[in-house]
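Subject: sequence -> C-alpha cells, single chain

Hey, anyone have a minute? Need the predicted structure for the following. Not urgent.
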Amino acid sequence: MVDATRQGASVSQQPTAASIVTEERSDPNAITEALEVLLDRAERAERCTADDLVAALPVNVVEAAAVVHDLESRGAITVQGGVLSLTDDGFDLAVTAVRRHRLTERLLIDVIGLEWWKVHHEAERWDGVISDDVEARLVDLLDDPGTCPHGNPIPGSRNRPDQSDAVRLDEAPSGPVVVVRITETLEADDEALQLLQGCGFVPGRHAEVKERRDGWVEVAGSIRDAALPPHIASHTYVRVQ
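Reply:
Had a minute. Here:
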C-alpha cells in the first residue's frame, strides 16, 4: 500500500497521466473513478478489492475486471491476494486524475454555476483532457480551492482542510452539525445528490441530526427536514458542533 503521507506529492509531471485516462481499453471515466477510489482507500490505509470497485463505482464485474487489467498492465497497481494497491507511479497518476477532476467540479459550480448535484458527472466529460497549463490556470482562477464541491480534499492544494474530526452521519449524535463531505461512492448517485441538495444537507451547510433509527437518519437541513436512508447516511460525513 502506498504511504498516504505522499498526498502532497508533485503533480507537475503528467506525461503518462493523460494516457491512462484517455486510452480506450476501458471506459476512461471508470479509470478515473477507480483511481479516485484507490487513492481514497490508500490515504485512509484501507484495503481495496475488485469487488470494492464494483460496489463503489457504476460498473459491473466485467467492467471492473477490465479497469483492473488496464491499471495493472500500466504498472499503476499491484494485485496480491485480490487486494489492489497503488504503486508509486500509480499514486502519482491518481493524484493527477483526482486533482484535475475536482478542480473541474469547482469550475463548473463556482464559475459556470451548474447545479451542485450535476457537477460530478459533467466533470467526468472533461476527464483526461485537462493539460498541465489548463490545470495551472484553474488553480489560479479558483484561488487554489481546498476541496471539491462535495467536500473531498483536492490533492496538492495548499488549502486542504483538516477533516480528522469528521464522523459518519449514521454515527453522529443528535444535535447541531456542519456537513463536511460525501464520499466518492455517493457522488455517482444522482438521486441521493438531489435529495441532499433539496433538503440543504450539503458540504458547508449547518444542519441538525434529529434521530437515528435502523441506519436511517432524520435531519433538519438548511432548507427542510429529510429522512436519509442508510446508503446516504453511511457515506456522508459531518462535524459535530
